[in-house]
Amino acid sequence: MTVTPLARVPSGSTLKPVPGDPGLPVIGNTLKSLRDPVGMLRARYDSYGPVSWTSLFGLRIVQMLGADANQFVLMNKGELFSNHGGWDFFIGPFFHRGIMLLDFEEHRWHRRIMQQAFTRPALQGYLQRMGPRIADGLAAWPAQGPIQVLPRVKQLTLDLATDVFMGSQLGPRAERINRAFVDTVRAGTALLRFPVPGLRWSRGLRGRRVLEQLFREEIPAKRASRGDDLFSALCHATTEDGHRFSDEDVVNHMIFLMMAAHDTTTITLSNLFYQLARNPQWQERLRQESLALNKEQLEHDDLERLEGITLAIKEALRLCAPVPSLPRRTVRDVEYQGHYIPAGTFVTVAPYFTHYMEEYWPDPERFDPERFSEARREDKVHPFAWVPFGGGAHKCIGLHFADMQVKAILHQVLLRWRWSVPEGYEMPVDTTSLPVPKDGLPVTLERFR
Ligand code: HEM
């Protein structure tokens, strides 16, 4: 492999160019990175160190690896990196003007308004709505026998999202809307990035149109009355200085929020099912904790009491970061660890990879929730070693919502079933978009009450 500098360093500068290589002609390292992102990044880290470039999706991308790089990029001192410039290439046509794709002052303006939908009282209201819906959803699961976790959990989180976010049941529209969400998310990693009927990109665009229509039709009713769902909250959210969202803003934010909430929690729950099936002693520990609460539906104050679940969720998020990599684009020339990265360059930081770095995590492949316990706190090794929710100005606004939803579902599942996978089963992960079990995660349920 010939090492090629990313760009010529300005004359007189003492900086070094970013080393790297383009990979294969035309496709670069795209397929390698989709098939085995951690393995590919490990190989590059070993060859080039924390900063290198390669060709992915037809772009030259600088991969900035490790906790220091996460901190540097995510904290974004001096506004060197644009979120819009990074994400727009991947998901812009499907999620344009979503808050994650806005930058700097405009982003802060939108975030201040959106924050009104995530206050503690708002979260308490969402949790109250969720409890009975979870019970309804789980009532449709078989008492025992085999199930595929991924489609079941996806259905449940989508039903919850439509109820808690939209304040309505989708009824017969559910299938079409679910398809639209799946298509918009998968389109982001399409290899052919223009509309060819039947392929990912064009299905994503069609999905976007379906969602726009769905939300647009509902806005007048939401503006006219005040419900306790998130859609209503966005329609009525007003900052102290009187700023509010336009109808277009509400549509864009709803589409982005539904996607951001639904897929990420589905992935987290699937991984918890998997890890708890392989580690039955942990499953039992969490069940005892849930039984001790002596109630089916969680209230907000219960969330902190579920210590074991809290540890297990953190560990599941470490082992499988639902958003594996965060793209940005430099808005001016950047200097990092003596390297020169010119303005206009795509860069990524990679939570998925950081979470497996032996430099931070002893025995990183092992499911070991106690590593987050007060006695050990391995995550304290670096403030940006554990970054499933990102960091800085764009840090996940829904992290408490996610924690609440995952706990509320897992708690009710633990109260009803034990579940298992065959001895030696290892879940194959499809990493061609957000990471999901390739086989849907087959487990066997056993109802015990
Ligand atoms: C386990 C579940 C979740 C994970 C792992 C997760 C992860 C992330 C990450 C890594 C980012 C930062 C992206 C970046 O910096 O480029 C992010 C942003 C965001 N997340 Fe989440 N998320 C989760 C759940 C949720 C939920 C439940 C919601 C909404 C209810 C949500 C809403 C958002 C929003 C709106 C942003 C953009 C924030 C901004 O740009 O200011 N997320 N999320």
Provide structural commentary.
With 449 residues, the chain is of the alpha+beta class. It has a single domain, classed as Cytochrome p450 (Orthogonal Bundle), CATH 1.10.630.10. It contains 15 helices and 13 strands. The protein has a five-stranded mixed beta sheet with strand order 2-3-9-6-4, with helices on both faces. The protein is globular and about 70 Å long. The chain starts with 15 loop residues before the first strand and ends with a strand. The protein binds protoporphyrin IX containing FE. Protoporphyrin IX containing FE binds at residues 83, 99-100, 111, 257, 260-261, 264-265, 268, 322-323, 326, 388-390, 394, 396-398, 401-402. Pfam families: p450. Belongs to the cytochrome P450 family. Residues 1-20 are annotated as: Disordered.
Tags for this model:
binds protoporphyrin IX containing FE, 3-stranded mixed β-sheet, Cytochrome p450, alpha+beta, 48% helix, 15 helices, globular, 449 residues
How many individual β-strands? 13
Could you say which overall geometry the principal axes of the C-alpha atoms support? globular
CATH superfamily, please? Cytochrome P450
The biggest beta sheet, please? Answer: 5 strands, mixed
Output the CATH class name.
Answer: Mainly Alpha
Side-by-side strand order of the widest sheet: 2-3-9-6-4
Helix content: 40-55%
Helical stretch tally: 15
The CATH topology comes to Cytochrome p450
Q: Are any ligands bound, and if so which?
A: protoporphyrin IX containing FE
User: What string, H for helix and E for strand, traces the elements in order?
Assistant: EHHEEHEHHHEHHHHHHHEEEEHHEEEE
Distance between the termini: 60 Å
CATH architecture, by name, is Orthogonal Bundle
Return the domain count. 1
Task: Note poorly predicted spans.
Answer: none
Radius of gyration, in Å, reads 22 Å
Assess the beta-strand content as a share of residues: 5-15%
Query: Which structural class best describes the helix and strand composition?
Result: alpha+beta
Overall pLDDT: 93
Region (Disordered): 1-20
Protein name: Cytochrome P450
Keywords: Heme, Iron, Metal-binding, Monooxygenase, Oxidoreductase
InterPro entries: Cyt_P450 (IPR001128), Cyt_P450_CS (IPR017972), Cyt_P450_E_grp-IV (IPR002403), Cyt_P450_sf (IPR036396)
